[in-house]
Amino acid sequence: MKNKGLLVGLIAIAIFVIGYFVWKSSNNPVSKDKEIIKIGAILPLTGDLATYGQSGQEGMEIALDEFNKEFPNKVKLVLEDDKGTVKDGISAINKLITNDKVQIIMGSMSSGVTLGIAPIVEKNKVVLVAPTSTASEVTNAGDFIFRICVSDEYEGKAMADYVADSMKYDKIGVVYINNDYGVGLKNNFSKEMSVKNKNIDFEQGYDPKITDFKTIVQKLKDAKVDLLYIVAQKEQLNFFKACRELDYKPQFTGSTMIEDKELLGELQSFLKGTKYTFRSYDPTSQQKVSSSFVSKYKAKYNKTPDFYAASVYDATRLILHSVVKANNTGNDLKSFLYSVKNYEAVTGIISFDANGDVNQGFTIKEIE
Q: Which of 39, 105, 169, 256 could cysteine-pair with 227, CB 3.0–4.6 Å?
């Protein structure tokens, strides 16, 4: 009887001990699940800007592949589709913050979406790193908002300086998409032209959903505009088709968006001689970071990465670098990013100023 009692006692103790450790494990804040850091990303995977989102997602995958080889099972990426609209961007950012509890997010590619979600990330003290949101207003969007692309303020000024100092024309016109991107870039171009004492003879904004540009193009012809600065997005294909159809070919100048695979694939010969501003990304660069990225991208996708793939790659890589170097809290990640200086990236050297901005400069390119 004594042995039986002893056995029962040992079983009871074993059950207690096992139960205690099971309870402790389930309540331990440093459990295996907690060791994996979640990072968020929002891209326009569908909608009007899906082409850019696809390139961005491919660049992001290269950054994740590199990171996971060095730090396996360290991070989990939660990707959401903002569809290129503020409404869907807000839904995506709320899910990432409320449900997924992320502390740092890559996105958005669209200036309008970035400005729409900025108050939410600022209120929740979550860091946002935008890869291609260039609107001037992003500069003052919040203390937790960073971007690795150059503000429209500098891009508009760069083209205005080039037009005023290096080009000949009788009448200049400006046509721009009526959204945060288009209005911001147009305003900065116009401001610098005014500083240079140069007149703008024709100015026309248009709705982002427009498909027929013949009326605008005819107005340009009638006004005898011989140098046109256009700020457009994917709809620019229809604009330039209308120019070709109506036999209107002034000296075209434009923004970074001119370098678009679909546009150049269809209208490159018509656009020969077009001048446009471009950020410091060169896929032929022999710089180690650039050449390594381009090589891996070509091996995986059998094509040359465009600026959007490179920008999202850089933003993702910087975020992954941050979560390794800093504690995974919004405040710590924010402080770390403000300390980043001379970070070597594919699209140029990244050094954040007091507003979370960079200034990498622009070059002027020409379509041949």
A: 169
- What is the DSSP annotation of 76-143? EEEEEE-TTSHHHHHHHHHHHHHTS--SEEE--SSHHHHHHHHHHHHHHT-EEEESS---GGGGGS-T
> What CA–CA distance (Å, rounded) separates 46 from 142?
27
Q: Which of 152, 86, 117, 132 is nearest to 312 (CA)?
A: 132
pLDDT at 353 over 90: yes
Stretch (H or E) spanning 250 = none
Q: Which helix (H) or strand (E) holds 247?
A: none
Residues 205-234: tens digit of each pLDDT: 999 999 999 999 999 999 999 999 999 998
Q: Do domains 33-151+283-361 and 153-278 have the same CATH topology?
A: yes
Give the start-to-end residue ranges of the domains of the chain.
Answer: 33-151+283-361, 153-278
Q: What is the pTM of this model?
A: 0.77
Looking at residue 27, what is its pLDDT? 46
Rounded to 5 degrees, φ, ψ at 210 are -65, 145
Q: State the fold for domain 153-278.
A: Rossmann fold (3.40.50)
The C-alpha atoms of residue 318 and residue 122 are separated, in whole angstroms, by 20
First to last CA, the chain: 99
Q: For all residues of the chain together, what is the average pLDDT?
A: 90
Q: Could you tell me the fold of the domain covering 33-151+283-361?
A: Rossmann fold (3.40.50)
